[in-house]
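Quick one: co-fold with magnesium ion.
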Amino acid sequence: MPPILEVTALRKAYAGGFEALKGIDLTIEEGEILALLGPNGAGKTTLISTACGITTATSGSVRVGGHDTVDDYRAARAMIGLVPQEINLEPFERVQNTVRFSRGLFGKSANPALIEKILRQLSLWDKRNSQIRELSGGMKRRVLIAKALSHEPRVLFLDEPTAGVDVELRRDMWEIVAELKRDGVTIILTTHYIEEAEAIADRIGVIAGGQILLVEDKDKLMARMGKKELEVQLSEPISEIPASLISDALRLKEGGTALIYSYDTKSERTGITKLLSEVAAAGLVLRDVVTRQSSLEDIFVDLVHEGDAP
Ligand SMILES: Nc1ncnc2c1ncn2[C@@H]1O[C@H](COP(=O)(O)OP(=O)(O)OP(=O)(O)O)[C@@H](O)[C@H]1O
Ligand SMILES: [Mg+2]
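Sure, here it is.
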């Protein structure tokens, strides 16, 4: 079976010549959840709209379920659901009609039971007869999600689906994503909430300056890039690290109240026992020791900063 999404050497230059995508290669297998992380202006929305065939690529190609998004647009687009970053709804239309109509646009026959299920899932059932303009911002975002699901897509693109929504909807969204995954739907989402990627993604892609910096299995990424830190708090502050302790892994906390030791999560030997005996031998008295593990957020910040380097 071909991969469900295949992006090959994709480039996009906007009118005026600005190159927002500089050769993107990305393969996604059916049923996985990929979170795309990247700073503002990285090219995430451009990548999604090009992948959906809404924006035309300058060169390269995108295939969805084996269908080219340019040569075979209708077949490719029918497989895709898109929740755009910008809210673009007809203000006077009613919620239920908006979602029904969206299904019809894809040539699918009416399915009131399905529309009801989607509206209930998104806590919009009570609002089904409200006009869009009567909804709050978070509710409008739910309508966008309902529309994207209305034609039963096999691949769902979510462009910042939880931007500006409350914690409860964010959790509901994660639950919906998990349910869709159980049905075999492939999901590509962008988010600025890194804990969201940490919570729901199988793989993480990092994009900056129109290029993919990395795509990797989340657990492997966290194991590979994750570092632990041990903070050795001292009973008396010191002004510099004693000469006998100096190493690349050790730094002095601001104010001199603690030594911070970084070590690899995957190495067999952490060096902690040795460090602690050397600390004692140097005549330092411990007050407490605390460990910290780097989060996906720390890893992401490091990666994007590396990307800035010339
Ligand atoms: N229609 C357009 N015309 C010209 N330049 C554009 C257009 N749309 C986007 N760009 C530029 O392309 C780059 C990538 O924009 P894009 O919207 O893809 O970023 P993004 O990663 O989605 O950012 P954000 O996190 O802010 O949503 C930016 O520099 C942006 O200014
Ligand atoms: Mg965007």
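If it helps, The chain has two domains: 5-222, 227-293.
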